[in-house]
Specification:
The complex is a heterodimer of chains A (161) and B (330). In chain A, 45% of the residues lie in helices and 16% in strands. Chain A has six helices and four strands. Chain A has helices at residues 13-19, 28-39, 77-96, 119-125, 130-146, 151-160, and strands spanning 42-48, 56-62, 66-72, 114-118. Chain B has helices at residues 2-27, 33-45, 54-60, 66-89, 100-114, 125-129, 133-158, 164-194, 199-235, 237-250, 257-268, 273-287, 297-308, and one strand at 322-323. In chain B, helix 10 (237-250) runs parallel beside helix 12 (273-287). Chain B is elongated. The chains are: A alpha+beta (161), B mainly alpha (330).
Chain lengths: 161, 330
């Protein structure tokens, strides 16, 4: 008699991204839907038009009933998506790593936890901050999925090529 | 020119088929409908005297023009599989995957053909035997089936979005084959009434072969181009070149020639050059916003170049306003 196989909890960024079960042709909307499904709350996306955010490129405010994700409107499109993916990384790490994520307090949102992608933190992350590094790794992995050739081209190659 | 095309096309198709079958065996996959279509088309080519004279092949089958039926069944099946392949690419699950209508048409052709008297092998089978009701019915069912498939291929291609540039060859082939079918159908309705020597029949008949075979040639090109493009794409040469350039531009400026050469080679031979190019682009963009980092002119030029290459799909990168947890696809 064999022991029941227990489902392994994804731990590394690669395992966490694989657990999303994304198709090679996934869009940003598809990825956001999967993340929201794991998060269990709706996600609201808001572009910040004002200048003066310095090295802060995106942030996630974890409210009781929803998550707010802010990104900078003036950034190039692909970079904006990458910074959003970094915040998705925090959401997924918060789920799988049991709130192991560090967050920065910001009075603007009261007591709601705020997670931000700032370039200073990222610069230190490689050496000291395991959570920031993992969130950035998840962002790179999601970016690689998003920027695969489109599905129709891939299907054409599979059938005709 | 026609003789040259007649030699080049089968050889080209044969080479591509060898390439594809080799890949199939290596990857242990089932053949795709496109490959089945090409294989059936290639087999059909051997029934028109490409490698062995038509009379010799027909003599193996009894020398009673049975080769005519075999060729037409192969051609019809080839077109059906081509249409199936196009449907798969366009993700159109429909009745087009049902082989029953095709099989019924093929059965009708075979019954009409078998029921008719036939003599020794001839290259002019239809003009010589179209007065026989069975052969007339057989040829009409065949040409109607070809017309049905060719028109359907044109309709499918018209609705295609991005791969239309490759499908254009199938569409062109469909138009030419449809025209050939219409010419043949009109010819077969004229001959029983006016005779095969009438001026109308005489003016129609020469059009059939050039239209049909130029249509087939267009489809053969359409089947041959994608594997070549896929092969070129798999090598990802442009991406490898830009990744090699990125690896050099972003390598620490040590002044050591060895490290530059190594960065160049590792960038070129990267397992996932597309992913590495993406990573470099993001890191460079980060670098533009960190006061302590000053990017060099080649690095800034590289960033501008890399940002031109993304995104591949504008629609895929659109940021939604709101996403709910229940929107996730299963």
């Amino acid at each position: 008699m064999t022991a029941p196989v227990q489902e392994l909890r994804p731990e590394s960024p690669a395992e966490i991204v694989a657990a999303l079960g994304l198709e090679p042709s996934s869009t940003l909307q598809d990825i956001a839907s999967r993340v929201a499904g794991i998060y269990g709350k709706r996600l609201i996306f808001e572009g910040l038009k004002e200048e003066g955010w310095g090295s802060l490129t995106a942030l996630w405010v974890d409210q009781a009933d929803q998550g707010l994700i802010f990104y900078r409107q003036r950034d190039p499109q692909v970079y904006r998506a990458h910074c959003i993916f970094h915040e998705f990384g925090h959401i997924l790490l918060g789920h799988y790593w049991c709130s192991a994520g560090q967050h920065m307090g910001m009075n603007l949102w009261g007591d709601d936890p705020v997670y931000a992608r700032t370039l200073e933190v990222l610069g230190d992350a490689a050496r000291t901050n395991e959570v920031e590094k993992a969130a950035e790794d998840i962002a790179f992995l999601l970016g690689r999925i998003l920027h695969r050739p489109d599905s129709e081209t891939a299907r054409f190659s599979a059938v005709f090529g | 020119m026609i003789q040259l095309a007649w030699t080049v096309f089968p050889i080209l198709l044969g080479l591509v088929l060898l390439l594809r079958i080799g890949a199939l065996v290596q990857e242990r996959r089932m053949p795709s409908p496109a490959l089945v279509s090409a294989l059936l088309g290639f087999a059909a080519l051997f029934t028109v005297g490409f490698a062995v004279p038509e009379s010799v092949v027909d003599s193996w089958l009894g020398g009673t023009n049975l080769l005519h039926l075999v060729r037409n069944l192969l051609f019809l099946s080839s077109m059906w599989f081509l249409r199936r392949a196009i449907c798969l690419v366009l993700d159109r699950p429909s009745g087009r995957s049902d082989p029953v209508p095709l099989l019924l048409q093929m059965l009708a052709m075979a019954v009409f053909f078998a029921a008719s008297p036939r003599g020794a092998t001839t290259r002019w089978f239809i003009p010589e035997y179209v007065h026989e009701p069975g052969i007339w019915a057989y040829a009409n069912v065949y040409m109607a089936a070809v017309l049905w498939l060719a028109v359907d291929i044109i309709r499918l291609v018209r609705r295609a979005s991005r791969p239309a540039r490759w499908f254009w060859w199938f569409s062109a082939g469909g138009v030419l084959i449809s025209a050939a079918s219409v010419v043949e159908l009109v010819y077969m309705s004229v001959v029983p009434r006016l005779g095969r020597d009438s001026s109308l029949a005489q003016s129609l008949y020469p059009w059939f072969t050039p239209l049909l075979y130029s249509g087939i040639a267009a489809i053969v090109l359409g089947l041959c181009i994608p594997p070549v493009i896929t092969l070129a794409r798999r090598t990802e040469l442009p991406l490898r070149l830009v990744n090699a350039r990125a690896s050099v531009a972003c390598a620490p400026l040590t002044g050591c020639r060895h490290s530059t050469a190594r960065a160049l080679v590792s960038g070129f031979l990267a397992a996932d050059p597309r992913g590495e190019v993406y990573d470099t682009m993001i890191q460079l963009r980060d670098g533009t916003m960190i006061p302590e980092v000053s990017l060099t002119a080649p690095q800034l030029a590289l960033l501008a170049d890399l940002e031109q290459r993304f995104p591949y799909d504008q629609m895929a990168i659109a940021i939604p306003n709101e996403v709910r947890p229940d929107e996730a696809r299963p």
